[in-house]
Amino acid sequence: MLIINPIEYPRHREWNAKVFSMPKIPRGDIGQSAILREILKAITEKVPYSTKMKFSGSNSHATLEHLCTWLRPVGLIYKEDRVWKISEEGRKFLESEDDLYLMAVFCANIRFTSELLVELETPLTSLELLNIANKDYKLNWDTKAEVGSRLTWVRQFGLVSFNDFKNTYYLTDEGKKFIENISYVKPEDIEVIGDITSNEVEVPVSSWAENLIQIEPEEPIIRKSSVGYIPGSIPEICETFDGYIQLIYSTVNKEAFLNYSQETYNIAVSSANAFATTMTNINFLERTSRNAYQATDLAKNWLINKSPLDLIYCLHVNVLFIFELLEELEKESLSFKELAVIAKVSYGFETERIDEIRKRINIMQLALLVQEETPGKYCLTRRGKNVLGKVVTQQRQNFTLVNGPLKEVDIVKEDLTVNDYLTELRLASKESSNPIRFEKAIAATLSILGFNVIRHGGSGKTDVLIQSPSIPKYSFSVTVDAKSTQSGSVTEGLINFDTLKDHRKIHGANFIAVIGFSFQGERLIKRAIEHKVALIDIEALETLIKLHNEIPLQVNSYKKIFSQRGKVSVSVLEEDRREIRRSGILLQAIMGCLIEESLDPVTEGLLHDKDIYRTLRSNKDFDSPPLLIEISEMLQFLSSPLIGSIGRSKEGYYALGTLADAKNKFNFYAKSCSTNQVPGKLDF
User: Fold this and answer.
1) Residues 163 and 258 in one domain
2) What InterPro entries has UniProt attached to this entry (predicted)?
3) Does residue 407 belong to any structural domain of this protein?
């Protein structure tokens, strides 16, 4: 084996040009370094790219094409005119078989590789290394996987050892010699790259893509919440679509599509079918028969420039929360988690999907629409702002507040919508390090329903106490315990039922409730039932608030929620909602009937309750025909001096104005009922 002089070690890339991940190489009996040499040899020997590479002791079925795709970012190989070639660094390693030279290549091209070795001059655990990577090097890794991958390589090369007793990693003598010959970056030297599109004036999008979002379809398109499955890595997304579109440019059969998927990306038939669905959903693929695929004109247009920006325009037409995501980032910098909650609360997502948000952000970073402003927080680039100025987005599903929050609730933000409260509620429910935030969010949210709310917290007291605003004889109160957990799951061990009972006695409350993101375990549910505790998850509370803003119920109706045991169901309110909904339909129907009769020459606009009954009994808007007594009571209400929407004489009832007039009067009374207290503020 030829040992390469450290003077010939590759020059380090700038930190921001380095890649994030170690190469994904199969593990076998011969070691990853030897397997890497076999891959490089296969390239020099012109082995077909579709060949499944076999390695002793490894179960990998990856093709040479797939392995090359994984290797390219670290600088050992590159692709030119669709042909894989070995770089100068790759050739030096192949010819010398010098593992330390390979590690020098990794250090030169991959973030936190040489830096990890330098940090291990002091023994550290893998968790301590992860914390250093995130805090000092701003890598924002969620797990120890990347740290573990680096440790695997450096231990194979004898640069690092592991102390079983202390659970720490440390540099060997060989490792100490090695770091003398390589460069590394200090945290204070890391340069934050600004917006490279800051001088752009026009959006560099193809005209066909721009037209795509401006043409109104003949029938409304139902936009899906999921981008869908895409094989390979997101940075390679354009190459992925390029390869598949060229495959199906002219009609190919399904078998050829599946074979290409398996040979190129080593994915199962189900995954290949899932990607076919993804391509169909964004109108890149059409079936010419049951088992034949062909590229659409849209896909062929995209193939001309292979632009990630054009791809985003294609996605926006068929997928929810694309340019809408940009709109949210225009207001403030947000994290994956925050965007996932906003998508759930305000844009029709069924659940919080951080994976879907991450996928969107990653593609948008490729298109230079967004950038990471601070670790884990994303903002718009100039290009992103320019795009927003030219596109039409879906409006937020905003709900206005029916009841203003009370002074007792600690609030800091003005002009809040229900969505703001629900977004804060979801985010706070998973911030276990700040339980007070969740208590405040619960207090503010429950005030929307009209409860008098007091947030206590502290030892010996409930977190939140709510009471219905009525005389003692008819009011009820509830002690509410807030349970925030990082995972979102509230388990039995987190709830002390004896303490909950004590809180109820101290405050003289009628009911006990626990609110958390979700509740797990049959035993927890059983114990809650035994101790007469209502478990309210965030989904149920969110539904409750949205239903209230659609059809506001009297506060006492919510007694049905808190008197439940175990996990609560909002369906118990359906009868109350049905009655109010029916009253609303009846009010409109009676007003409409009287207005319509106003110009009748026979009745002269005068009708008795029985006349209206005969008219409305066949009205299909009602689940069952309105009763005569319901009509009489509504007529008395509408003809009362305060409402005055209809008049009353011996000859019958008559309209005094239009529905618009009635609406204006109801709106005036609604404003008169608004509290004059200072709007509450949530600590967002």
Assistant:
1) no
2) WH-like_DNA-bd_sf
3) no
> What is the Cα–Cα distance from 555 to 449, expressed in whole angstroms?
7
Q: What is the pLDDT of residues 50-97, one digit of tens each?
A: 888 889 888 887 888 888 887 888 889 988 877 899 999 999 999 999
Amino acid letter, 397: Q
pLDDT in tens, 234-268: 877 888 999 899 999 989 999 999 988 887 787 88
Taking the alpha carbons at both ends of the chain, their separation in whole angstroms is 61
* CATH number of the domain enclosing 426: 3.40.91.30
Place of tokens 């709830």: 495
Number of domains in the chain: 4
Q: Phi first, then psi: give them for residue 371, nearest 5 degrees.
A: -145, 160
- pLDDT tens-digit readout, 3-25: 899 999 999 888 878 888 888 78
Residues contacting residue 432 through CB under 8 Å, at least 6 positions apart: 484, 485, 486
Q: Are 548 and 449 within one domain? A: yes
Q: Are residues 216 and 327 in the same domain?
A: yes
Q: For tokens 């990890």, what's the residue? A: 116
Domain containing 212 equals 198-397
Residues 546, 610: one domain?
Answer: no
Q: Please report where in the chains the tokens 């979102």 appear, as a residue.
A: 488
pLDDT at 671: 79
Contacts (Cβ under 8 Å, ≥6 apart) of 676: none
Q: What is the DSSP secondary structure assignment for residue 73, as one 8-state letter?
A: G
The answer on 358 and 312 residing in a single domain is yes
Evaluate whether 681 touches 411 at the Cβ level (below 8 Å).
Answer: yes
- The C-alpha atoms of residue 506 and residue 343 are separated, in whole angstroms, by 40
DSSP 431-472: -TT-HHHHHHHHHHHHHTTT-EEEE--STTS-SEEEE-SS-T
Structure tokens at 551: 């059809």
The conformation of residue 406, written as its DSSP 8-state character, comes to P
Q: pTM here?
A: 0.71
The enclosing domain of 128 has a CATH number of 1.10.10.10
